[in-house]
Amino acid sequence: MSLEQLIAQCKKNDAQAQSQIYKLFASKLFSICLKYSRNYAEAEDNLQDAYITIFKKIDQFKSKGSFEGWLKRITINTALQRYRSTGVFNIINEDQIEDVSVEIDDDTISLDFLLQIIQELPDRYRLVFNLYALDDFSHKEIGKMLDISIGTSKSNLARARLILKNKVEQYKANSNSQSL
C-alpha cells in the first residue's frame, strides 16, 4: 500500500493503516521526541501524545508538502506543549550576552557525549538550541512557537551555547590531563 493510500485509510480510522504509519515513522519521530524531552520516558510519552494528535488531525493533511514534515511539526509542537503548560518560559531575561560558538575540532568528543550535554541543558535553553541549531527554525518562528520574544530566543540560544562550550572545554581539559 502506498503512503497516500495509508493516509487515506487513516482518515477513515483504519487501525491497520494507523499501525503501518506508526511503524514507518516511529523511529524518526522518537528521535525528535528525545531531543525535546528531559529523558527517555518523557520522550515515549511525547511520542504517544504526538501520534494521538496526528491521528486526530490527519484530515487536516491536504497532501501539500511533505507528510513527514507535517508529522515532524506536530511532534515538535506536542513536546513543546508540555513545556508551555509548565511555565518554563515565564521568567524572561532578555539581557543579551555575547554570541558564543562551540568549536569541536577533534575526534575526542563522541556524539553520545554531545547529545548528553545538550539533554542536560535547562529546558528553556535546550528547546531553543534544538529548534535553532538542529531543526533550522528562525528566532521569529521560535518566538511564536514558544510564546517568547525574539530577543529572549537569541539570549537563550547564546546561554545554551555558552554552557555547551564550557562543558566541552571542561571535557577536553579532563581528557588532556588524564592522558599526561
Automatic annotation (TrEMBL):
InterPro entries linked to this entry: RNA_pol_sigma-70-like, RNA_pol_sigma-70_dom, RNA_pol_sigma70_r2, RNA_pol_sigma70_r4_t2, RNA_pol_sigma_r2, RNA_pol_sigma_r3/r4-like, WH-like_DNA-bd_sf
Pfam families: Sigma70_r2 (PF04542), Sigma70_r4_2 (PF08281)
CDD domains given in the database record: Sigma70_r4
Positions of the RNA polymerase sigma-70 region domain: 22-86
Keyword entries, A-Z: Sigma factor, Transcription, Transcription regulation
Sequence ranges assigned to domain RNA polymerase sigma factor 70 region 4 type in this UniProt record: 114-162
Family: Belongs to the sigma-70 factor family. ECF subfamily.
Name assigned to this protein: RNA polymerase sigma factor
